[in-house]
Amino acid sequence: MKTGPKHGNILGIRLDSTRKEKLLSEIRSKLESKEKFYIVTPNPEIVLVATNDWLLRKTILRSSFSVPDGIGLKFAYKFLHNEDVEVIKGRELFLDILKIANEMNLRVYFMGGENNEAELAMNKLKNIYPKIAFKTYHKFPKYTLMGQPASENDKNLHRKIIGNIKLFEPDLIFVGLGCPKQEKWIYRNIYRMKFQSSAMVVGGTFKFIAGLSKLPPKWLASLGLEWLWRVIHEPKRIIRIWNAVLVFSVRIVIAKLFEHRFKS
């Protein structure tokens, strides 16, 4: 592959592909120049959701980096376009960015998570990245699927969170609210902040770091079977995994058939 970024799409949802080293170099450059940016990490499930969610689709389109996360996207892109796409796991990218933040003595805010997982993750990472100034909040509001506070109480708590973030003035905000809430939260809030804070979605990364969820063995992940690990350990995710593995695959095949029919 070329070393520069490649822009493409799956089912009309934007994806970027570049080597991890190049991506991290661009992120470092933006942090050094105080240029605001935000990163999304679409996987097959998120791509599927975005096809029927105009705001999520718009959020991904306008992101600074739309990083493919999930082996299913690699297979789908190859099938549709006969080209490779570089897949980078979001949780690994998160740790790589923290290394940069540590080298630069940056300020980092953890937004979201359940069961105090953001604070648990933060306390573990403080020892690994001692030059980072970390901050989070003890409680986060509930958000609707549109990324807005769900009730009046949640609106009040949301304002407290925004005030807490503004006082801290972080260089980076990592948002773990689950899709599509986290993407839309960033889209709605990041550019309203006058200081130069950038953001990235992290899904369930706080839970993994906190030790509340087990990572699959590397050999299983390398075979593209991380979804099977999640079915076994989190059976309540079965519908989401069904969509990401089976429904997504059917949509890809249909898209390819329509493409051939249109060309003929």
UniProtKB/TrEMBL annotation:
This protein's UniProt keywords: Glycosyltransferase, Transferase
Entries under InterPro entries matching the protein: WecG_TagA_CpsF (IPR004629)
An MF annotation (GO) of this entry: hexosyltransferase activity
Domain of life: Bacteria
One Pfam family of this chain: Glyco_tran_WecG
NCBIfam families: wecG_tagA_cpsF (TIGR00696)
Protein name in UniProt: N-acetylglucosaminyldiphosphoundecaprenol N-acetyl-beta-D-mannosaminyltransferase
